[in-house]
Write a structure and sequence with these properties.
- The protein has 146 residues and is mainly alpha-helical.
- It has five helices and no strands.
- It has helices spanning 6-29, 33-59, 70-85, 89-114, 117-141.
- Helix 1 (6-29) packs parallel to helix 3 (70-85), helix 2 (33-59) packs antiparallel against helix 5 and helix 4 runs antiparallel to helix 5.
- It is elongated, with a radius of gyration of 15 Å.
- The two termini are 30 Å apart.
- The relative contact order is 0.17.
């Protein structure tokens, strides 16, 4: 991976960190044990995805992103507020997670479409992981990618 890819990878890392923070907030508040288990599994997958991308950036001599974005922090706070006011907190969290999964998946797909062969290979592994998370959450939410 070239140094030119580092900013793009860091943008994906920051988006992943934003998503991971949302999962952490949701995990602390959902009540259903099966949903808690699924969120923990998806959180672990996001940890791997972020760690792998950070390692790719570090391997090129770049400095990998370590924090999410201000917009992501605001989205997490709004999701928490919305879930707190909902009559079905678990469902509210699932819908918030589903919306954010769409954004993260779309960002990865856009990068994949513009990637060099080397970067496409790296992103392909991560995209496969994201598709799994995406299917899980959208199945629970009763929605599709969009």
């Amino acid at each position: 991976m070239s140094h030119a890819r580092v900013p793009r990878y860091n943008a994906l890392i920051r988006s992943g960190i934003d998503d991971r923070e949302l999962y952490r907030r949701a995990l602390a508040q959902v009540r259903e044990p099966g949903l808690q288990a699924l969120l923990m599994e998806n959180l672990h997958t996001l940890d791997q995805l972020i760690g792998d991308l950070q390692a790719q950036v570090h391997a090129t001599g770049g400095t990998p992103a370590r924090h999410g974005t201000l917009a992501g922090a605001v989205r997490s706070a709004l999701a928490e507020l919305s879930a707190g006011m909902s009559s079905n907190r678990d469902a509210a969290w699932v819908h918030s997670l589903a919306r954010n999964e769409c954004v993260l998946l779309r960002r990865f797909e856009e990068q994949m479409a513009r990637a060099s062969d080397e970067s496409a290979r790296v992103l392909g592994v991560q995209l496969s992981r994201l598709h799994g998370i995406h299917r899980d959450i959208h199945c629970l939410a009763g929605t599709t990618h969009g």
